[in-house]
Amino acid sequence: MGYLESAVVVYLREVYYPSGFAFPIHPMTGKIAVTEIVREIATLLMLLSVGFLAGRNFRQRFAWFIYCFAVWDIFYYVFLRVLIHWPESFFTWDILFLIPVTWTGPVIAPIIVSVTMILLACIILHSEEKARMTKGGRLSRTLLIIGAILVFVSFTWDFAAYMLNQYPVSVMFRADNISIAMQQYIPRNFNWWFFIAGELIILAGIYVVYSKSVKSLEK
After folding, report:
1. CA distance 213 to 210
2. Among 69, 90, 97, 203, which is least packed, fewest CB within 10 Å?
């Protein structure tokens, strides 16, 4: 799946960026833009399907989903590097997602997130293999959700700031305005503070999951 994703990007860049990828994003026709968004949704559905088939309960299915997502994302960059020698460095800016708005950030950021997801998935799956995890994980869920929200904000912060400078809040989320902004937007600043805070909170949530699993195994 990582190779398939990178192959699609290679094709798109040959069509839209024959001299090499650079911001701002080249305008796409309506048909191509819709196809690309639906492709992202299809990718998520495939990853969810793997998690659903591999797991026996919600925790296992969630763990397999985030594990597959993380491995897919890492190897997406590995194959891009092999095929077209991109990204040039870990701090090269990339478009991460288009749903619900444009996500951007240096390549190192989603790789860090992916490693974190693999760590969480492995802890959940290991504890599930040895013994059923104890209930009462509200604290860990809260930490993981808050951390994930902060990471999401860090990826969308720069584009949102650009939109706020271009349009009033009442019309900034109109589809035509978002489309125009995407074609003019050049990333400037990644919100490392939100990202680091989110990652630290996620790691705290992972530690809570780990400590609960250890206590469960000791019983």
Report:
1. 5
2. 90
Cα separation of 75 and 2, whole Å?
Answer: 5
DSSP string, the chain: -HHHHHHHHHHHHHHH-TT---SSPPP--HHHHHHHHHHHHHHHHHHHHHHHHH-SSHHHHHHHHHHHHHHHHHHHHHHHHHHH---SSTT-EEEEE-SSS-EEEETHHHHHHHHHHHHHHHHHHHHHHHSPPPS--HHHHHHHHHHHHHHHHHHHHHHHHHHHHHS-TTTTT-HHHHHHHHHH-------HHHHHHHHHHHHHHHHHHHHHHHHHHH-
66-75 pLDDT, tens digit each: 999 999 999 9
The residues pairing with 103 across neighbouring beta strands, listed in sequence order, are 97
pLDDT tens digits along 11-30:
988 988 888 888 888 877 77
Q: Look at residue 136 in the predicted model and tell me its pLDDT.
A: 47
CA distance 46 to 1: 9
The answer to whether residue 186 scores a pLDDT higher than 70 is: yes
Q: Who wins on pLDDT, 213 or 61?
A: 61
